[in-house]
Design goal:
- There is one protein chain.
- This protein has 578 residues and is of the alpha/beta class.
- 47% of the residues lie in helices and 10% in strands.
- The strands form 3 sheets. The protein has a 6-stranded mixed sheet, with helices on both faces. A 4-stranded antiparallel sheet has the order 3-12-11-10, covered by helices on one side. It has a two-stranded antiparallel sheet with strand order 1-2.
- β8 and β9 form a beta hairpin.
- The two termini are 57 Å apart.
- The N terminus is likely disordered.
- Belongs to the PPR family. P subfamily.
- Its EC number is 3.1.26.5.
């Protein structure tokens, strides 16, 4: 991250083609700038340190303008009064400054989708000579790019003033020498697509590199979805290739859009490629994607695609090298597909075709790398000394056969925390443990002191676990999720929790290895009067899109809670298999 706002030096010589287009559009001009003057005049080179590196880069910096939302007057009061202003008074002055008030009002317009009010505020600010910051302009561009369903305006796109004014505002931002960032370009791309111009939206993304800006997934969305809606498959593939080059990983919505445009153009090779990417990146698909895949296998194009003969050894070698569950050699067989919505039994046998799904192994090296990255993240988010102390404790007392998320287990189907239920879970896992050792119970310190923890029976339980080296109390202010997850990964053991692990903390761990690890190690419980405490062990097969050696496909649909809802699978098998 740069410590000062900057343009890249290459843009001091000439505007990029896109901005030349924007600047050639009739527009409002800032009264202090002649339309023909360079928008980069007044900038000069400066050596700035790039935070987090040893790199110093020569970049263009405007030392005459302030591009933040806090006005200069509010930040630097006159010398005669600054000593007399208390911190509270200075904070109040900043909050009540015209720039801050405009920020608050624009934020409200953004939340409510009020394009008309945002444009009125913009016009009023320009009339009053108010200096707009990067943040102001970004909010304005975002509001202007909102689609009809997201705004308070009429449903007719021709009456949406944001579409006609958006690029004028973008141009004025450049004329005012306000440096664009990723959000600026992304909002510009949204605006281009709102005007049914995905080509310009893609141009926006391409120009980010000229500004030294790394595109994000959201930056590509407008262009990719725009081309897909138009049925322009080749341009959609071009956007996808640019994403891959920029190391931006697509998610299910982007892959589903590519799948549908490939289906519409009957590009069987691209459909196959996209299904493999869905298998690798998404694993279990949502209902819209599930329906689209079903539509493909029922189509004539799917029936016509495929090889009549193939090298069996090559297919098997592909399965082995891929870790199982897929071969990646293309469509096998020809002719119509039998497509059925079905379920798997508890052993992973398809109730339709009777094929048994495989359990895909996890590479031990991946596990070690994941444990190392987990440690780094935990030390960033937690007090490092506290987490290092836990690691040392685990080295002395581990390994364990199971780690229990104590807070979660004590609250399943309970109105308040139950030590009795937690103890039942502990006893069950001690019984099934090969070593008959107690599992490790992770509890926050607030759970082990005061309240129910002081009751004699509960205190006796805690003392028993503590004396056996099977209880760890996480320190105040910590997130115990990091502790029980690290313990389970480092001990290579079962993790007992009903936590779905979908919040921000777990998103930090990435989308590739973690879901695979979780599927093979997480144990959940259910509690009912009829069955009492029931353990739900990891499935003996991988819940992921699977491609068999004979070309049969099984596609799982994602569900919120598969303990309550049976998971649907799509079974697609050639009418005549080889």
């Amino acid at each position: 991250m740069l410590r000062a706002t900057c343009f890249t030096p290459s843009l001091s010589r000439a505007c990029c083609p896109l901005f030349a287009l924007i600047l050639s559009t009739p527009s409002l001009h800032h009264p202090h700038h002649h339309p023909s003057s360079s928008p980069f005049r007044g900038y000069h080179y400066s050596s700035l340190h790039v935070k987090g590196t040893r790199d110093k880069r020569r970049i263009l910096v405007d030392h005459n303008r302030h591009l933040c939302t806090i006005p200069e007057a509010a930040k630097q009061p006159p010398a005669s009064t600054s000593e007399n202003l208390s911190r509270k008074a200075r904070k109040k002055a900043i909050q009540q400054s015209p720039e801050s008030m405009l920020k608050q009002k624009l934020d409200m317009c953004s939340r409510n989708g009020n394009v008309v009010e945002a444009l009125r505020l913009y016009d009023e600010a320009k009339r009053n000579g108010l200096q707009l910051s990067q943040y102001h302009y970004n909010v304005l561009l975002y509001v202007c790019s909102l689609t009809d369903g997201e705004t308070e305006s009429s449903s007719s796109s021709s009456t949406n003033p944001g579409l006609s004014r958006g690029f004028d505002i973008f141009k004025q931002m450049i004329v005012d020498k306000v440096v664009p960032n990723e959000a600026t370009f992304t909002n510009g791309a949204r605006l281009a697509v709102a005007k049914d111009d995905p080509e310009m939206a893609f141009d926006m993304v391409k120009q980010m590199k000229a500004f030294g800006i790394q595109p994000r997934l959201r930056s590509y969305g407008p262009a990719l979805f725009g081309f897909c809606r138009k049925g322009d498959a080749e341009k959609a593939y071009e956007v996808d290739a640019h994403m891959i080059e920029s190391e931006v990983v697509p998610e299910e919505p982007e892959l589903t859009a590519l799948l549908k445009v490939s289906m519409d153009t009957k590009n069987a090779e691209k459909v196959y490629e996209t299904l493999q990417r869905l298998r690798d990146l998404v694993r279990q698909v949502s209902k819209p994607t599930f329906d689209a895949i079903e539509e493909w296998f029922e189509s004539e194009a799917a029936a016509e695609a495929g090889a009549e003969k193939w090298d069996v050894k090559k297919i098997r070698d592909g399965v082995v090298s891929g870790g199982g569950g897929w071969h990646g050699q293309g469509w096998l067989g020809t002719g119509k597909w039998n497509v059925t919505r079905t379920e798997m039994d508890e052993n992973g046998v398809c109730k339709c075709c009777r094929e048994k799904l495989v359990c895909i192994d996890i590479n031990p090296v991946e596990t070690e790398n994941f444990a190392a990255s987990l440690t780094r993240l935990a030390c960033q988010k937690e007090v490092k000394a506290s987490f290092n102390q836990f690691q040392e404790w685990l080295e002395r007392h581990g390994p364990f056969d199971a780690v229990i998320d104590g807070a979660n287990m004590g609250l399943v189907n309970q109105r308040s925390f139950s030590f009795f239920q937690l103890n039942n879970v502990v006893q069950r896992f001690q019984q099934i443990s090969p070593s008959k050792r107690l599992p490790l119970v992770i509890l926050h310190r607030s759970r082990v002191v005061g309240g129910p923890a002081t009751y004699p029976k509960n205190r006796a339980l805690l003392e028993k676990w503590k004396n056996a080296g099977a209880l760890y109390a996480t320190p105040p202010g910590s997130n115990d999720d990091w502790y029980w997850l690290y313990a389970a990964v480092s001990c290579k053991c079962l993790l007992v929790t009903n936590d779905e692990m979908r919040d921000h903390l777990f998103q930090l761990l990435g989308t590739s290895f973690f879901p695979r690890w979780k599927e093979k190690h997480q144990v959940r419980i259910s509690v009912s009067r009829e069955e009492g405490l029931k353990l739900h062990m990891p499935p003996p097969y991988s819940i992921i899109i699977q491609e068999s050696e004979d070309g049969t496909w099984h596609v799982p649909m994602s569900v919120e809670d598969d303990l309550q809802t049976s998971r649907q699978w799509l079974c697609a098998r050639r009418s005549q298999t080889h």
